[in-house]
Amino acid sequence: MEERWLQTLIDGLHSRYAGVHKGEVANYIPELGKASPDHFGMAIATSDGKVFETGNSDTLFTLQSVSKPFAFGMALEAFGEEKVARHVGVEPSGDSFNSIELEKVTNRPFNPMVNAGAITVTALLYQKYGDQALDRILTRLSAAAGRNLGIDEEVYHSESKTGHRNRAIAYLLLNFDMVPEEVEPALDLYFKQCSILVNTRDLAIMSATLCNLGKNPVTGEEVFDLDAVRNMLSIMFTCGMYDYSGEWAYRVGVPAKSGVSGAVMAVVNRQLGIASYSPRLDAKGNSCRGINVCTDLAQELGLHTFDCMNAGSSYLKAVL
Ligand code: GLN
Question: Which positions in this protein are listed as binding substrate (predicted)?
């Protein structure tokens, strides 16, 4: 019963927006510009491991910025909150994802969801794991998706060749001692991390791993520590949709992360992992259809964290 109902719901949302052609495919990374603007996939994974999918849910795309919260979680586990906080803040910047700016006084990047913060996080991982770092990231994200992931070599080379702005950000970070000396291999790792290939179904399961307190609900594997998950979700809630994060929190009300490939991952704590893929982006770099379907889903299912329909699931409630 539940299964048919959820499937009908996402099929309906898909057809509601498949005919809407707003937004442009990103082409500042030339290889991304080759994506079909009409591709549109959606998937939902539940915290008890059921997966529903519709549209082009098998089409592969690169994670881009959706990789950032996962790398942040790995850094928190590897270094602890205090050390990570010396290198990257937790404050929304209110500016675009690739803005060249650092916090006053501390010189830290504002948060790990903007490029400056994500490059810092990845540089810390590179410092710790060196040439093993990519394998570590791939292994962890594969565990979250429940299958072995790889990278899209073309997208990686394309960004590595043209990513001058990110290179400028990385050298600015070096100037303020926010990243270690080895800037180029750290940037290379960042470009590779952004080029990890997934489909919408994978992304829904990765999202459900976060909704399920770090345990992949399909494979049963423990992927992230509880504390890391809490911190990842907090930062996604305040900063995950770039300079649309405030409006997203207001309208949709769940932690989320977008990427310029057209991916959106939204996490409904203890309940659902939601994913959508549609490469038509708005001016802020968020998928237009991704915003539409998540907004509608949140309204129709009462998913907003502060919605009176959302029953909540706090420890306090469980023990009272
Ligand atoms: N790799 C992309 C970049 O650094 C990721 C940005 C994004 O998805 N918003 O520009």
Answer: 65, 115, 159, 166, 190, 242, 260
